[in-house]
Write a structure and sequence with these properties.
The complex is a heterodimer. By secondary structure, chain A is an all-alpha fold. Chain A has helices spanning 21-55, 72-79, 81-113, 119-127, 134-144, 151-158, 170-198, 202-210, 215-243, 247-253, 264-273, 278-306, and strands at 58-59, 67-68, 254-255, 258-259. In chain B, helix 4 crosses helix 10 (184-195) and helix 9 (171-179) runs antiparallel to helix 10 (184-195). The chains are: A mainly alpha, B mainly alpha.
């Protein structure tokens, strides 16, 4: 059992299950270091999550105690015109937003990836909106879209183009919001695309040039395929983010005490903290979670078709 | 090399065209900021002109003073600063402690617990907001700083990010320090924490940014005007306090300036941090 030279490990009964006292001490320290995170996680996530799930099956108007109503909240959801409106609005914002965001950010990243001067300056320029407060962004753009006095409409009028009341009507409001979301989010995607582009070995392009491939062919056959993991990542988080949009849209489209473009998260807030129907609000939140999961799962399934991992 | 030779010429024009495009897109991008600054300095009459100009005829700096006069804006600002600093320090401290432990220490259940924490990334906040609201009621934390700060300092993302970084630091430092009798906390504090500065800076800035801009939770857990933070104050009180849009713009600008400034100072490290976190 013991070799002639190696000292025998000190076995102390007090170590109880650990190889030696040192390992046990390390474990105790480790638990101490992760304790704050675990406690907070237990209270504000695990317990909250469990309570949330249970409460989604109750009717609860905060002043009284919750009463069990089974699936009634979910059934009501499905027939609720407000929910349908909010869901349609949210998806109508999400799809064009994520699509154009990827396309434009990629174009910008490619432009910045060529060896031009002032690259850092442009990078900064496009990234600035990303570090700006969404409430402030909504406030600023609300003024830009002002139908009578805002610069957007006055420019449109000067060009002889129609100058609608952007934020007052659903269709134009969706377009307006998508533009603002693009403005504020493209910088982030661009940075990530840039990192992905720079990870592509230049050798590939040089070899392709020698073979006579044009710029477009190089883009289609080298750049795009090698960027698919990055594109996939950005599209997943883009959709998840977009489906949860709230403060920016709320600030922009709240006119005269009514919300012209309610989103799903706005509805959660409204039902939970204005009408105080807590159980119903939670049910909406779980439905949103389910929708996000479905979108994400679909993307993960599809990725096998088009994402190349080296 | 003769500039007017064919390919050189084309490359130069191509490069100029690229700059032209980038510059115009860049200027378009900056227009909302420029317009916001310009609007904030306009007088009422200039504001309601149907053909607005970018450059105001007279600079009304007193619009900025009016923000503080018409609303408890200073209160909002101070609240935001306190809450943001609290949340940022909390997130960085807790996530770095846990990230270090998961990366460098061995203990039973390490893998399972870590994966469990990751589940926190999958669930969106709206599902949890009502129960958290109720917990705040039980604790009596409505309209308090702890109510604003503490529920938001447990960041699974931070634990993930910092563990990732700590994994990349060689164990040699750890082993050497252990032989000298240091306990894990000392090892964390004296060796690994200083080595993790880039990751801490990147995560710290992300925490700072999201805390400063955070809206939904602040809206939920505060009711009294004196406890409101900037985003909530600006969103809710536009009609009430800020009777003209120049003042609204001034308020919006003042809310965004600090983060813009911080970003401008630390941009190189921060942009790299964003890229690294994206590639993982």
């Amino acid at each position: 059992m013991h070799s002639a030279d190696a000292p025998a490990p000190i076995r102390r009964p007090a170590a109880r299950g650990f190889r030696n006292r040192q390992t046990r001490d390390e474990a105790v320290w480790a638990y101490a270091l992760i304790a704050p995170m675990l406690i907070g996680f237990a209270v504000f996530f695990l317990i909250a999550l469990g309570a949330s799930l249970v409460l989604s099956f109750t009717e609860w108007r905060i002043i009284e105690s919750p009463s069990w109503i089974g699936l009634a909240n979910y059934r009501e959801l499905v027939r609720d015109p407000q929910f349908r409106t909010a869901l349609v609005n949210t998806v109508a914002i999400t799809v064009p937003h994520v699509f154009f965001r990827l396309v434009i950010a990629l174009a910008l990243a490619i432009a910045l990836n060529s060896r031009i001067r002032f690259r850092a300056f442009y990078r900064l320029l496009f990234f600035l909106p990303t570090v700006t407060m969404p409430v402030a962004i909504g406030t600023i753009w609300k003024w830009l879209y002002d139908p009578a006095f805002g610069p957007i409409n006055s420019t449109l009028r000067r060009l002889g183009l129609p100058a609608p009341e952007w934020l007052a009507h659903r269709g134009t409001a969706i377009v307006a919001v998508v533009i603002v979301l693009l403005w504020s989010g493209i910088g982030y995607d661009m940075i990530i695309f840039l990192a992905g582009l720079q990870a592509i070995p230049r050798i590939f392009y040089e070899a392709a040039s020698i073979d006579g491939a044009s710029g477009w062919q190089q883009f289609r056959d080298i750049t795009l395929p090698l960027l698919t993991p990055t594109t996939f990542f950005l599209s997943v988080i883009g959709i998840i983010y977009s489906l949860q949009v709230f403060d920016l849209v709320y600030v922009m489209t709240r006119i005269d005490q009514t919300n012209r473009l309610p989103t799903v998260v706005y509805l959660i807030y409204d039902e939970g903290f204005r009408t105080f129907r807590m159980g119903y609000a939670i049910a909406i939140a779980w439905t949103l979670l389910a929708i996000i999961l479905v979108f994400t799962l679909i993307q993960f399934r599809l990725q096998k078709r088009w994402v190349n991992y080296e | 090399m003769n500039v007017s030779s064919g390919p050189q010429h084309r490359r130069l024009i191509g490069r100029l065209a690229l700059h032209a495009v980038l510059l115009s897109v860049g200027i378009l991008f900056m227009l909302p900021f420029l317009w916001s600054i310009s609007t904030s300095l306009k007088s009422m009459s200039e504001l309601f002109s149907v053909q607005p100009n970018l450059i105001p005829k007279k600079l009304r700096w007193d619009n900025y003073q009016a923000v503080f006069d018409n609303a408890p804006f200073l209160r909002f600002y101070i609240n935001s600063i306190i809450v943001t600093i609290g949340r940022t320090i909390g997130q960085v401290a807790i996530a770095s402690l846990a990230g270090f432990a998961f990366a460098q220490l061995r203990f039973p259940g390490r893998g399972v617990i870590f994966v469990g924490l990751l589940a926190g990334l999958m669930v969106p906040d709206q599902v949890l907001i009502v129960p958290r609201f109720v917990i705040m009621r039980e604790f009596g934390w409505f309209d308090t700083y702890q109510g604003l700060i503490i529920p938001l300092i447990f960041s699974s993302f931070g634990v993930f990010l910092l563990r990732q970084y700590f994994l990349g630091i060689p164990r040699d430092f750890h082993e050497a320090a252990k032989l000298e009798g240091a306990n894990p906390f000392q090892i964390y504090r004296d060796i690994y924490l200083p080595l993790a500065r880039p990751a801490l800076a990147a995560f710290g800035f992300l925490a700072l940014l999201s805390s400063w801009n955070e809206f939904f939770w602040a809206l939920t857990v505060t009711n009294q005007t004196e406890m409101r933070v900037l985003p909530v104050g600006i969103a809710l009180f536009q009609g009430q306090y800020f009777t003209n849009n120049a003042i609204v713009m001034a308020a919006a600008n003042m809310a965004t300036f600090p983060l813009l400034l911080i970003f401008l100072f630390f941009q190189k490290q921060l942009v790299e941090g964003v890229a690294i976190s994206g590639l993982k």
